Structure formats: C-alpha cells, structure tokens
C-alpha cells in the first residue's frame, strides 16, 4: 500500500463474502466502513474480526458499521456521508450487497424481480454515483462490483438474480470508461460456487449437481473472493479497469 491511509467502504459487509473482504482489508491496514441491511449483531462480529486481523498483522485501523438500505438514494447517501465524516475520504468501494428471490420465470412475481434488481443493481449504481465525486476530487479510487458467474452464463430459476448480475457487468464497464481519466478503476469479480449462507440453503442434490460442473470439483471459499478484491483494491491493479475476474474453479471455462 502507499503511505496514504486508505479507507474502504463495503456494502453487505456483515457476513459471507462481504465479511471476508472486510477482514482481509483490515489485515492490510485499511480503515473500514461496513454497510449492513439489518443484522447489527453480525456487523458487530465483523468489526471484531477486523480489529483482530489488523492487530495480528501489527496494523492500527478504525472501523465503523452503518445500517442502510443501499436500494434507496437516502441509504446510499447516508453510507457515503458516514464514511466521509469519519475518515474524510473513500478510496475503495466494494458493491457486495445482494439478495436472492429465486423462482422459475413463469411463477416469479414482479415484486420478487423488482426487489432483486433494486438491491443488487440499483444499489450498486446509487453507491457508485455517491462515491464518484469524492473519488474524483482526490483523483484516486477503486470500485469493485461483486457480480456472479450467473451474470455471464445465466441459471434456471434465477432470471432476476442473473439479470442483476449481468447488469453489474455493464455498469462496471461503463463506469470504468467514464472515470478512468481521474485515476479511478472499476472492475467486477464473478464468483462461482462459493460456500456462504446463501449457498448453504441449497439442497444436497442441488449442491452435488453444481459441484459436478466445476473442473476443480470443489466449492470456493469467501477468502478466495477476498483475495481477488484485495488485488483489485491495491496499487498493483492500477492499469486494470473495466474487467471481469472470474473466481470459479474453472466453472466458466
């Protein structure tokens, strides 16, 4: 890292992939803003894990957690304002907040479609728009969107989720072109089958069927995504923008 004390804002940071990214960044000395939807206990657990990771690596960090609904303009603005008030800058934005409302196309309600698009895609747009100004002012930024392999290849029973994650890829590429001249990069990570609370809800049969499609024959871990995010947030990725990094054990080959 550079001598500048970096600050990362992570939406959906209280558990799963978001938590893994937060803890990994804490270990590298990032100050953190953990955005969460409603589970304050999980957010508190993540804060403690971040402090422990930083302490283990001899780093001193500050961490705040902020409850906000990123699907609303008010929620996105509140998150960014909290970060700016506490740290005075935002160097990394990780758009990780996401929900699922699975169902076959013919049975999916309009509400279930709208809810997923609102959180997964509109939320990322709102957060990106809010951080763009402070990042442009400081002439530095890293925006990382957590997409999915289903955003590239689709998945039966997930037309809403697939559409939201495919939309994130388009958002990533357009944002990258708009902000590149201000030393702001924007990239996406497309996880494959990762062991999280979301995938644990799958039936054993569904898990076995999914594992059969993965050349490495195993599920990934949240830490695998965190490692990719650390790279894209670092100075080492300064000439990489508008790209989609698949972390899927070969599933998307």
Descriptive account of the structure:
With 253 residues, this protein is α/β, with parallel strands linked by helices. Helices cover 48% and strands 15% of the residues. The chain has a seven-stranded parallel sheet with strand order 3-2-1-4-5-6-7, sandwiched between helices. α1 runs parallel beside α2, α3 runs parallel beside α4 and α4 runs parallel beside α6. The longest helix is centred in the middle third of the chain and has 29 residues. It is globular and about 50 Å long.
Gross morphology is globular
Largest beta sheet: strand ordering: 3-2-1-4-5-6-7
Order of secondary-structure elements: EHEHEHEHEHHEHHHE
Name the quaternary structure: single chain
Estimate what percentage of residues fall within beta strands.
5-15%
What's the number of extended β-strand segments? 7
